[in-house]
Recover the amino acids of this structure.
C-alpha cells in the first residue's frame, strides 16, 4: 500500500471520528464527551447521548456508508461517473418496496423485523434490472445520457406509485412523505439493528469483488481474458449494491446524491483502484451523512430539515458539474 492510500485512510478515519464526536456533542443540549464513560455525573445528558444522539449518529453513518460504497460499485460496474442509487432510480424502487410493505401491512413471520428492508431491497434490485434492460433496448451502447434519462423516467413513474398509495391510505401514512425526504430522526437502536446485518453483508460482497471491478474498467472482453466471470460478477455486484441501497432507504427514506458525490470525489483524488476506492468511499460517505444530519437539525433549530434536502443542496451542483464536464470533454 502506497503512502497516498495510507494517508487517505488515516485522514478518512480521523474525519469520521470528528464528525461522530460533533454529532453526539452538538445540539439543543450540549453533551460533554466525558458522558460516554461517566454517566452518573449527568444522568440527563447520559440518557440523551445513549438513547437519542448515539443511535441517530450511528444510523446516519451506516446509511451514508451504504450509499457511498454502493455508488462506487455502480460507477465502476457501469463505467459511468453519474451512476448512483439515486440517479439510476434504485432509491425510488427501494422506496416503493418499503411503502408497499407499510401500505399493505406486510409482515412475514420468518423475517419479522427484517420484512421492511427485504422488500425494500427487492424493489431496488428489480428496478435496477428493469432500468438496465430498458436502457439496453433503447441504446445497446448504454450511453451515459440513456442511463440517466431511463433512471429519471422510472423514478417519476415510481414516485407516482408512491403518491397513489399515500393518497389512498389517507391520514395514516401522510407522515411518510417526510420519511421519503430522508431522515434519521427518532429512529433509535432498533433501526440500527435492522440495517447493520445488510451493511455488513453488502459491503463484504462488494469488497470481495473489488478485483473484478478493477478488471471491468477496461471492458468486459478484457475482463474475460483476465479470468473474470463477467456475467456472474455483474449480478453479484448488482445484488450487493441493491442490498445496501434497499436497507438504507428502508431505515432513512430517500437520500440523494451521497452515492454520486463521495465516490466521484475519492476517484478524482486517489484514482479508480477499487481495492481502496470502496473502503475510502465507505468511510467518507459515513462522515458526510453524519455532518449533513448535524446541519439539518441545527441550522434552523429547533425545527429540523429533512436530511435529503441538505444532501440535494450539495449533490445537485456536483451532478451538474460532472455532467457538464463529461459533455464538454465529449464535444472537445
Amino acid at each position: 500500500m502506497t503512502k497516498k492510500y495510507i494517508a487517505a485512510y488515516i485522514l478518512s478515519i480521523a474525519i469520521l471520528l470528528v464528525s461522530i464526536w460533533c454529532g453526539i456533542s452538538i445540539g439543543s443540549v450540549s453533551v460533554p464527551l466525558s458522558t460516554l464513560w461517566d454517566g452518573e455525573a449527568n444522568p440527563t445528558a447520559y440518557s440523551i447521548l445513549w438513547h437519542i444522539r448515539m443511535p441517530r449518529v450511528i444510523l446516519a453513518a451506516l446509511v451514508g456508508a451504504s450509499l457511498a460504497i454502493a455508488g462506487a460499485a455502480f460507477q465502476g460496474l457501469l463505467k459511468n461517473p453519474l451512476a448512483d442509487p439515486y440517479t439510476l432510480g434504485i432509491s425510488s424502487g427501494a422506496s416503493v418496496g418499503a411503502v408497499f410493505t407499510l401500505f399493505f401491512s406486510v409482515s412475514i413471520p420468518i423475517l419479522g423485523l427484517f420484512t421492511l428492508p427485504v422488500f425494500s431491497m427487492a424493489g431496488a434490485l428489480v428496478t435496477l434490472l428493469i432500468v438496465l434492460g430498458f436502457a439496453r433496448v433503447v441504446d445497446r451502447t448504454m450511453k451515459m445520457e440513456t442511463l440517466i434519462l431511463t433512471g429519471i423516467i422510472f423514478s417519476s413513474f415510481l414516485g407516482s406509485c408512491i403518491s397513489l398509495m399515500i393518497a389512498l391510505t389517507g391520514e395514516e401514512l401522510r407522515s411518510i412523505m417526510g420519511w421519503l425526504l430522508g431522515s434519521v430522526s427518532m429512529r433509535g437502536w432498533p433501526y440500527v439493528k435492522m440495517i447493520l446485518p445488510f451493511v455488513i453483508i453488502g459491503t463484504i460482497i462488494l469488497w470481495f469483488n473489488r478485483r473484478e471491478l478493477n478488471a471491468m474498467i477496461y471492458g468486459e472482453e478484457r475482463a474475460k481474458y483476465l479470468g473474470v466471470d463477467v456475467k456472474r460478477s455483474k449480478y453479484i455486484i448488482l445484488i450487493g449494491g441493491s442490498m445496501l441501497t434497499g436497507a438504507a432507504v428502508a431505515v432513512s427514506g430517500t437520500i440523494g446524491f451521497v452515492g454520486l458525490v463521495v465516490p466521484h470525489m475519492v476517484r478524482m483524488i486517489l484514482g479508480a483502484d477499487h481495492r481502496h476506492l470502496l473502503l475510502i468511499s465507505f468511510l467518507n460517505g459515513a462522515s458526510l451523512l453524519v455532518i449533513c444530519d448535524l446541519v439539518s437539525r441545527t441550522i434552523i433549530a429547533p425545527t429540523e430539515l429533512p436530511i435529503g434536502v441538505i444532501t440535494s443542496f450539495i449533490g445537485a451542483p456536483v451532478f451538474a458539474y460532472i455532467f457538464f464536464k463529461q459533455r464538454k470533454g465529449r464535444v472537445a
Notes: Residues 43-78 form the longest helix (36 residues). The chain has 13 helices and no strands. The mean pLDDT is 85.
